[in-house]
Amino acid sequence: MGSIFWDAQGCILVEFLEPGQTIYAARYIQTLVKLRRALHDKRPGRKIILQHDNARPHTARATVEKIRTFGWETLPHPPYSPDLAPSDYHLFGSVKEQMRGQR
């Protein structure tokens, strides 16, 4: 399983879990810390607006608090939405290109 964070300029962070691992709140927070570092390096000085679904690791109290301490805004996601994130339709071609040759 992989987590991918991107913006209009391209991929910011790609992180893969080891086989058998799952994402829980503390693990997602570790990923957000890595994302914060990547944003600092690749997109310094930008206002961050995070869009993620309403999975439990994303909505856990600890996660919400960490996002708040980072000063990021979170876009709401409708509960039980059958849709992928609206940008997913444009993501996969770009991700395939950037990951070409990687295993």
UniProtKB/TrEMBL annotation:
GO molecular function, one term: nucleic acid binding
Domain of life: Eukaryota
Entry-linked InterPro entries: RNaseH_sf, Transposase-MT_Hybrid, Transposase_1
Designated name of the protein: Transposase
